[in-house]
Design a protein that fits this description.
415 residues, mainly alpha, two-stranded antiparallel sheet, 2 strands, globular
């Protein structure tokens, strides 16, 4: 087991700080390679495929498609990173996506239940599924690998039963809009320069997002300094803020030039903000890190481990249900093969995004970045006409490299 994150101490107001002293110097700037390596790798992969595709990867329509096509995997990765931080795994999320999508289709299409009520009932069904698995794992003591492997088979069979081995659709327009739709423009478009055709309202949202991120990161840095925690040097901190702001604004501008912000991106942003706050500032989030970092110490410190693990799987079930509705809405049909291999993509996103195999380490933003790396690889190799077997080969190598890097960083930190 890895050591408990410093933020597990109740007095610390900020999220998990950089782990280990492993650092590298790039262009004269000293960086924590374990914390920053995933973002550097993401940037290099984007640049590589931008060159290989002659810039097609970064075109407005392709960026929009990249976000919409990977939205459900990114939602799953948020729940998966929390489970992996706590030292568990969930192999059933793909099947849960399928069965909850089927439930939503039956409720909305077959029974004509209004979509808000049907959506709520579907999320409750996902929570019940998570509670079922969480009970066997947390209170009965069966390893999560076994319980969720059984769940993978059980809920796939239930999907076939609910659907009668056939697709059900079409879905109501609001559900399809959530999955595939875009925000409306309110203040007209910019007609000049690189912003030509961009929606002004979307641009304002991007500027506010960058401002909020900068203020939040500055407050976090100030709080860590107040508690004498390790922080990046000021030039490195400012470089990270400027780089992140440039990336966010570039993406927002490209989206605003196409069809504005996808609604699913708005949903993802809210989820990332909410879960980042939970993991960095809430007691529940610190307990997750404590359990994954050192289970015995967590028990001795009075943390109700079983209760935390139980609610983690309930949360995973709810997020899987949300992903199931979005995936079904995007296809405009709930099908018996929905969600195949989604669990592998979500797990890969978490590990590529910096989660540790032993638990106790990981960030929500890292999982999102890991999911985007997988999405860029899929999209970029599709644009250059690579066969599917080559795509799987590259994704496998990237996953192995990410885990190998984590192991290497731990060994170096222990020296």
């Amino acid at each position: 087991m890895s050591s408990i994150s410093p933020t597990d101490v109740p007095t610390a107001p900020a999220g998990p700080p950089p782990a280990g002293p492993a650092r590298a110097t790039i262009f004269g700037v000293s960086l924590n390679i374990r914390q920053s390596g995933i973002y550097i790798a993401f940037a290099l992969i984007v640049v590589l495929f931008a060159v290989l595709t002659d810039g097609a990867l970064l075109q407005p329509q392709n960026i929009s498609n990249l976000i919409v096509q990977n939205s459900y995997i990114l939602i799953l990765s948020i729940g998966m990173i929390l489970i992996i931080i706590a030292g568990h795994i969930d192999l059933s999320v793909g099947s849960v996506v399928a069965v909850t999508g089927a439930i939503s289709a039956v409720l909305m299409v077959d029974y004509g239940i209004p979509w808000p009520v049907a959506l709520l009932l579907t999320l409750i069904a996902g929570g019940v599924i998570g509670a079922w698995q969480g009970y066997w794992i947390a209170y009965f003591g069966i390893p999560a690998f076994i319980v969720t492997l059984a769940g993978m088979l059980l809920f796939r069979a239930l999907t076939l039963t609910v659907l009668g081995n056939q697709g059900i659709g079409p879905f109501p327009d609001p559900v399809r809009t959530l999955s595939n739709g875009f925000t409306d423009g309110y203040f007209g478009n910019v007609g000049l320069g690189v912003l030509g055709g961009a929606d002004i309202f979307s641009l304002l949202i991007g500027v506010l997002a960058v401002g909020g991120m900068a203020v939040s990161q500055w407050r976090t840095r100030t709080a860590r300094l107040g508690y004498r925690q390790a922080v990046d040097p000021l030039p490195v901190f400012l470089l990270k803020i400027v780089t992140a702001a440039a990336v966010i604004l570039f993406v927002v501008v490209q989206l605003a030039r196409f069809r504005n912000l996808p609604w699913v991106l708005v949903l993802l942003t809210l989820l990332v903000l909410a879960y980042s706050l939970v993991t960095s500032r809430a007691v529940f989030g610190r307990q997750i890190y404590a359990i994954g970092g050192n289970l015995q110490a967590a028990v001795l410190s009075g943390i109700k481990v079983k209760q935390v693990v139980f609610w983690l799987f309930v949360n995973m079930g709810v997020l899987a249900a949300l992903a199931g509705v979005i995936f079904a809405g995007r296809l405009n049909q709930a099908g018996p093969t929905a969600g195949n291999t989604f669990e592998l993509d979500a797990i890969a996103a978490a590990f590529i995004g910096g989660a540790a195999v032993q638990g106790g380490v990981g960030k929500v933003v890292g999982a999102i970045t890991g999911g985007l790396i997988m999405g860029v690889i899929n999209n970029g190799m599709s644009l250059i006409g690579s066969p599917s077997e080559r795509v799987m080969l590259v994704k496998g190598v990237v996953l192995l490299a990410a885990v190998a890097f984590d192991v290497w960083a731990k060994r170096r930190a222990a020296q």
